């Protein structure tokens, strides 16, 4: 265990120490996030932070010695995702090109055994073995979570902090399930992202960029496949979805909202959860901390589901679904207007700053 502790300290330190150097590199290569009507910052901000997180993650993995076949697949896909993100941070790739690159990165991990092989049968005992259907399902999961983290990266520290909470929760659940193979990569990712977060929390000196948000999503999705989808318990498929609840639900609502309004699915808007929290009157930091709090509640719920029986798990899921849908409707995430505009004046003043 000593080498794991050293790996975590190294990942944390590397994430913190490498970030300023990566920020200077981003300025030199023109990887800057420029302000516009949808964004909160008033000046150019470096956006290549994912490179620092990636290097810190690799350094921690190397010291830990955790390089079995599935982890090699995780690293291979993550490397391709980071390269794709770096290209987008510098050259602003079209959305369809990014999606194609994400599919390639996800497919590259499959030959290493990083794949969903079976699902629990919700209608009775036993397992549903997926066969070759496991390949498209795994690719869909990896790409979906990759994009989910990318889409919520709209406030300083939001995506990085969410990833830290999700990685720690994933580690706890995988440990209780006896799937230790997923715990080390998840913890090292959390340490690397936490080191970076010191520079990324409001007011951010550097952004993750697509290189970082996609990396965090891909690694979280991959470690979930390694650890949580190997269980034969009835709620094994629900737990990783719950752990990544905020980014996944926000992305699902965004897709449904844009389809309903006949807008491009890949087009940006100002109706994500974090935008609605700001419109409701929360400051930048408080909005981020509220999302952190919900992340923590969903993570605790995932741990609870892993402990209680199936009947109680269903009850917990129903309660959570009602609460989430009610809250999403009240703040306007589903597409309506947020109820309560006390903070609109403050929000407009933030845009003018």
Folded structure, characterized:
A hairpin with a 6-residue loop joins strand 3 and strand 4 (127-129). The protein is mostly helical. It has a two-stranded antiparallel ribbon with strand order 1-2. It has helices at residues 2-29, 49-64, 69-91, 95-109, 134-151, 158-177, 183-200, 209-227, 238-243, 245-260, 273-279, 284-307, 310-331, 344-352, and strands at 32-33, 45-46, 118-120, 127-129. Mean pLDDT is 83; it is low at 340-353. 68% of the residues lie in helices and 3% in strands. It has 14 helices and four strands.
In brief:
It contains 14 helices and four strands.
Secondary structure topology:
Elements: H1 2-29, E1 32-33, E2 45-46, H2 49-64, H3 69-91, H4 95-109, E3 118-120, E4 127-129, H5 134-151, H6 158-177, H7 183-200, H8 209-227, H9 238-243, H10 245-260, H11 273-279, H12 284-307, H13 310-331, H14 344-352
Antiparallel strand pairs: 1-2, 3-4
């Amino acid at each position: 265990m000593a080498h794991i502790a050293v790996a975590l300290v190294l990942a944390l330190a590397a994430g913190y120490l490498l970030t300023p150097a990566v920020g200077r590199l981003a300025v030199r290569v023109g990887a800057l996030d420029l302000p516009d009507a949808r964004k909160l910052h008033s000046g150019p901000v470096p956006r290549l932070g994912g490179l620092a997180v990636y290097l810190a993650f690799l350094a921690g993995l190397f010291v830990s010695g955790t390089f079995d076949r599935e982890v090699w697949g995780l690293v291979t896909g993550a490397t391709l995702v980071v390269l794709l993100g770096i290209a987008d941070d510098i050259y602003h790739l079209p959305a369809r090109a990014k999606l194609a690159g994400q599919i390639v990165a996800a497919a590259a991990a499959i030959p290493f055994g990083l794949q969903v092989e079976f699902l629990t049968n919700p209608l009775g005992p036993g397992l549903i073995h997926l066969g070759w259907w496991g390949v498209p399902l795994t690719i869909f999961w990896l790409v979906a979570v990759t994009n989910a983290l990318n889409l919520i990266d709209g406030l300083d520290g939001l995506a990085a902090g969410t990833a830290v909470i999700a990685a720690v929760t994933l580690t706890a659940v995988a440990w209780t399930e006896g799937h230790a193979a997923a715990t080390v990569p998840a913890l090292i990712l959390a340490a690397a992202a936490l080191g970076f977060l010191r520079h990324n929390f409001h007011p951010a000196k550097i952004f993750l960029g697509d290189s970082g948000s996609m990396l965090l999503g891909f690694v979280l999705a991959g470690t979930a496949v390694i650890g949580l989808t190997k269980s034969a318990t009835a709620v094994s498929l629900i737990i990783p979805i719950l752990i990544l609840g905020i980014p996944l639900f926000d992305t699902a609502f965004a897709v449904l909202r844009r389809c309903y309004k006949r807008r491009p699915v890949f087009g940006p808007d100002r109706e994500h959860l974090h935008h609605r929290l700001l419109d409701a009157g929360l400051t930048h930091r408080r909005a981020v901390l509220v999302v952190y709090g919900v992340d923590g509640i969903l993570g605790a719920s995932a741990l609870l589901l892993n402990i209680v029986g199936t009947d109680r798990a269903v009850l917990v899921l129903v309660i959570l679904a009602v609460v989430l849908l009610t809250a999403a409707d009240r703040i306007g995430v589903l597409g309506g207007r947020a109820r309560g505009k006390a903070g609109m004046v403050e929000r407009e003043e933030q845009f003018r700053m």
